[in-house]
Amino acid sequence: MAVPHGRSLADFLPLKPAEKLLLENALSGVITELSAQRPSTATSANTIRAGFLRFLILGGDELNPVHELGVMLKGASIEGDLELRETQINASITLIHCDLQNLSLRGASVRGTLNLAHSHCKSLKADLMSVSGAMYLDHLTTRECMNLQKSEIGASLLLRGTRLDGQGGYALVADGLVAHSVQFADQFIALGEVCLNGAVIKGQLNCRDCSFKATDGSALSADGITVQGSAFLTTGFHSQGPVRFSGAHIRGQFSLKEARFEGTDKEENGKTLIVQDAHVEGVLILTKLAVPLDNATLSSSHVGTLHDDASTWGKEIGLNGFTYDFLTTEAPLRAQERIDWLDRQIPANTGADGLKGSASKFRPQPWRHLQHVLEDMGHAEEARAVGVAFEKRLRKVGLIGQPPAGMPRGLQWLYRLPALGLHSLYGLFTGFGYRPMRLLAWFFGTWLVCTSVYWYAAVEHQVFAPSNPLVFQNEVYASCTPEYGEAWQRLHPASERPAEIGNWYTCKALRGEYTGFSPGAYSLDILLSLVDLQQEKDWGPITPTPFPSYWDELRNLEWGHGIRLLIWLETLIGWGISLLLVAIVSGLTRRKE
């Protein structure tokens, strides 16, 4: 029966010395070791033709069946391109410390493991390949793009100490790869972009002690990757160029501890880490980075817990839409440090670009979300501090007092100025609703100042008098009137007028049954608009009859005029404090509209 060329031993006779030894060992399941190291030059003692090697890898022929352990070869120089496209390989392949030209496994199916450790291969094309076991590419070197696109690896893909040189292009294309785990370690180096876009890793993605250097594009691109375990870009990880994990889904933790991210001026505007629309169910660890994280974006991504430290963040980071359920740090959690973190965003998003109002690109979401998380974590004071800083930032970027849409430009100030004024008072009295106890300080301070003024005005200027007209009509109290006191002073110019004469406040003739004047109670009665202490009702300032001319009125201002204005002002302050207290009790102060 006819068979294709290359499927019979007769097609390769006579065999070279190394091929004879390989055939003998392949039949008995023994490794063929031609050299302890990868040969630097091809000799008759270490050269094996690629076609003969293919013959054995495919199982040999009926007279020369290969052992179930498969072909195991070490230290050989492979002559020609090893072509295994669309083949069914029923045993493992072990080609370690070998020098290969072009190796093609496109669409091949390997029942076992594929081991190319410590070998050199000009190019490896293994897209659409399936390997039931592990794929060992440890210390493998390539000079062209390695292609593992849409391949399936039943166990681990190991690239420890591997060196991939894309010659200015892609170093590794493994988009759509399916593997149990993937490991880059032990001084792995990639010169060119490494692509894991859309890959599915059922275990862990482990990148330690490895270097990814972009020559054109990104250093590491893993957009849309799914990692059912955890992803580690940790100790010794170094990237020069963007690292992309946009749209990634990581079910475990995503650790970047002690990693080093550097951007380039060529691509992505110098971006270092791009994680947009990603979802990390566990912890995003960003601690002990080799250099602060500059030009990174986490926009629209969600992580279970964000864990960072004081040296994590650099400048121009993107946080708009970034959410997290919990926040932990290496040091005690302080509000000012988190505010500084928000100020490390892209300048336009922090309001530092100078644009105001509707033209501003300020993004409130990072502030709102940080405040919400701090509240949920029980850090109430830190949450309030963030809330106060946020309100001040809104004012700075002109987002307070914006007029309704369609309002004529010439009338917009009628809306803006009162809104800004009320917002300022709102912050002054209650810290924008986050410092309600500040109202007590204002209340006490207003009461104390007004009490002092009322006392001084009553004692030194005889301003206050009873408001009941029956008291004035009673001749018994004539000595209490200011007119009586002035007359007494004219009769006794050399004597000091007694305090009980000409002053309703200190007059002893006023009977005890009439409410006595108390500066403190009077001030409190005005402030507490809903409480009646009988002071405001029974006492009032003495003000002269108004002049018909405004100019004359201004030239004849007396203490009575000033006290009346102070009473009006204190009344307004009292109503304002009362309304804010009601709002605090009802929770309305936390509403920003």
Give a structural overview:
The protein has about 600 residues and is an alpha/beta fold. The chain folds into 4 domains: about 1-110, no CATH class; about 135-330; about 330-405, no CATH class; about 440-470 and about 515-585, no CATH class. It is about 30% helix and about 25% strand. The protein contains 14 helices and 37 strands. The strands form 4 sheets. Strands 5, 8, 11, 14, 15, 17, 19, 22, 23, 26, 27, 30, 31 and 33 form a 14-stranded parallel beta sheet that branches. Helix 8 (about 440-460) packs across helix 11. It starts with 16 loop residues before the first helix and ends in a 7-residue tail after the last helix.
How do the helices and strands line up, and which of them pair or pack?
Elements: H1 17-28, E1 32-33, E2 47-49, H2 50-57, E3 71-74, E4 77-79, E5 82-83, E6 88-89, E7 93-96, E8 99-104, E9 109-110, E10 114-115, E11 120-125, E12 130-131, E13 135-136, E14 141-142, E15 146-147, E16 152-160, E17 163-173, E18 178-185, E19 188-195, E20 200-201, E21 205-207, E22 210-213, E23 220-221, E24 226-227, E25 231-233, E26 237-240, E27 243-244, E28 249-250, E29 254-255, E30 260-262, E31 273-274, E32 279-286, E33 296-297, E34 302-308, E35 323-329, H3 335-342, H4 347-350, H5 365-376, H6 380-396, H7 412-430, H8 438-461, E36 464-466, H9 469-473, H10 482-491, H11 519-527, H12 535-538, E37 539-541, H13 550-555, H14 559-586
Helix pairs in contact: 3-6, 5-6, 8-11, 8-14
